[in-house]
Amino acid sequence: MFANHKYIAFETIVVKEVRRFTRIWLQTLVPPAITIGLYYLIFGNLIGRRIGEMGGYDYIDFIVPGLIMMAVIQNAYSNVSSSFFSNKFQRCVEEILVSPVPNYIILLGFVAGGMARGLAVGIIVTLMSFVFTSLSIEHVWLTILVVLLTAMVFSLAGFINALFANTFDDISIIPTFVLTPLIYLGGVFYSIELLPAAGQWVSALNPVLYMVNTFRFGILGSSDVNIYWALFMLVVFSAVLFAVALILLRRGTGLRH
């Protein structure tokens, strides 16, 4: 298969995925924006006034990067997991797999679609944040790199979830029992410096902590973790999850009935 043919196949999958979530934007883009807006209003503005400062910043300024990252994570994950499983359920994925398109192109197409939705929601909630606070980005390129890597990691995780899922209920199990606890305990609403030593050690095992804090460093210039180590972990997570997803796809895991 020639390179231009691979690009056309990749572009086709990405365009399909983007059209899928933009066509129903009232269900995919508006609800997360409203949810994060309520976080801004209640936790950041109303409760934040009583809390005062966190990590040397006004509380609302401190939580905004974490809330943006939370929106990116949830939407990148849910887009790929729901989309690929829907293709499995409707037997559309079989048509893709029997085509001469390489498996890595298929994987990249779905992941890029998930990243697109995650980034779209991230941009929306970032623009909304200016209503409540006047943040400026300290390290622009680092911020962009972190949000891209994070969206990629959770798009890949969503793809793996979709491969193993047998019912639509299986799609919601991981976000409910794994993803949500990781996000809420990942330093979105607090600095891990507030925790006792044992709590900090446990938090250090949470991958979301590194994503949130690196993104916070990009915006505020402050972090609870080593930035270089966090970036290294993000790259490793991306590479490992991509390799796992590609191996599972080649083996046909969850695709044979």
From TrEMBL:
Pfam families: ABC2_membrane (PF01061). Keywords: Membrane, Transmembrane, Transmembrane helix. GO terms for molecular function: ABC-type transporter activity. It is found in: Membrane. The chain crosses the membrane at residues 24-47, 59-77, 104-128, 140-165, 171-192, 227-249. PROSITE patterns: ABC_TM2 (PS51012). It is a multi-pass membrane protein. InterPro entries: ABC-2_transport_permease, ABC2_TM, ABC2_TM_bact-type, ABC_2_transport. NCBIfam families: PRK15066.1. PANTHER family: INNER MEMBRANE TRANSPORT PERMEASE YADH, INNER MEMBRANE TRANSPORT PERMEASE YADH-RELATED. This is ABC transmembrane type-2 domain-containing protein.
